[in-house]
Each structure stands twice: as structure tokens, then as C-alpha cells.
Specification:
It is a single chain. Helix content is 42%, strand content 27%. The radius of gyration is 30 Å and the shape is flat. The termini are far apart. It has a 4-stranded antiparallel sheet with strand order 1-2-3-4, with no helix packed on it. It is an alpha+beta fold and 146 residues long.
Length: 146
């Protein structure tokens, strides 16, 4: 008798858990409306369109950065921005102004790359031509020729 009651309770709890999981899965499917991923070295940016409870859309931008420990284990730090429709225009304008300012003042070269162990600066073709002309203007002379 006791085992039948226990079994009935177990079945009810299992059904409740299954229904909850189904609801969570439905919410997740509704939540995943449109997504893009940008991988940038140790950082990954996730751009997601999500829905509010009122079924309006907003954007989340998540930066995920991987940190590796000395023992080889790793963890991620995440930062998230919520961007709502009423802010899209102003956000886009300011983002364009900021990116233009950086590129106009510092160019497109990524300065931090210089600090990497395997950095090798690529010369512009004019610099390479100048070096080649300089090398060709010298003649190899052996002291025995003098």
C-alpha cells in the first residue's frame, strides 16, 4: 500500500517536472528569434533578438571572454547589454560617431597586435621598393679586388 502511494506521488512529480521543462523549452524557443555570433580572438559577441512578455522585440549584446588558468582549466566572463527599440536610433548614431572617430584618428591598424609574440609588421609596397633600391645600389666588393 505504501509503495503504491509513493509510486503515485513519484508519477505526479515527474509529470509536473515534465510540464515545467516543456514550458521552459517553449519559452526558450520563443526567446530565440534571431541570433548572430562574432568571434574575435578570446572574445565572442552574441547578438540576439528576444521578445518581451508583451511580445515586442529587443536586442541583447553579450560579450563572452575566455580566461585560461595556469592549470589549463578555463572560465568565461560575460557582460550583457539590453537594447530596446526606443533607443535603437540614438544608439546606432552614437556607435557610428564613435567608430568613425576611432578610425579617423587612429586608422584601421590594430596597435595591440604589435605586443603579441609573433607580430611581424607588414611593410607597404613603397617601403619595400625603397629597401630593394637601396640594396641594389651597393656593389659587393671583395677585399682581394682592391
Amino acid at each position: 500500500m505504501f509503495s503504491n502511494i509513493f509510486f503515485s506521488i513519484f508519477v505526479e512529480v515527474k509529470l509536473l517536472i515534465d510540464r515545467t521543462n516543456m514550458r521552459e523549452n517553449d519559452l526558450l524557443e520563443k526567446d530565440e528569434i534571431f541570433s548572430k555570433v562574432l568571434r574575435a580572438g578570446r572574445r565572442t559577441y552574441f547578438f540576439d533578438v528576444r521578445a518581451t512578455k508583451a511580445d515586442d522585440y529587443y536586442i541583447t549584446i553579450t560579450e563572452s571572454k575566455k580566461f585560461t588558468e595556469e592549470d589549463g582549466s578555463f572560465h568565461f566572463k560575460k557582460h550583457k547589454i539590453y537594447l530596446y527599440k526606443e533607443d535603437f536610433t540614438a544608439f546606432k548614431e552614437i556607435l557610428e560617431q564613435m567608430t568613425s572617430f576611432v578610425l579617423n584618428n587612429k586608422g584601421e591598424e590594430v596597435i595591440s597586435e604589435r605586443h603579441q609574440k609573433d607580430f611581424k609588421k607588414e611593410y607597404h609596397s613603397e617601403e619595400a621598393e625603397t629597401e630593394n633600391k637601396t640594396e641594389k645600389s651597393f656593389t659587393d666588393i671583395d677585399f682581394d679586388d682592391i
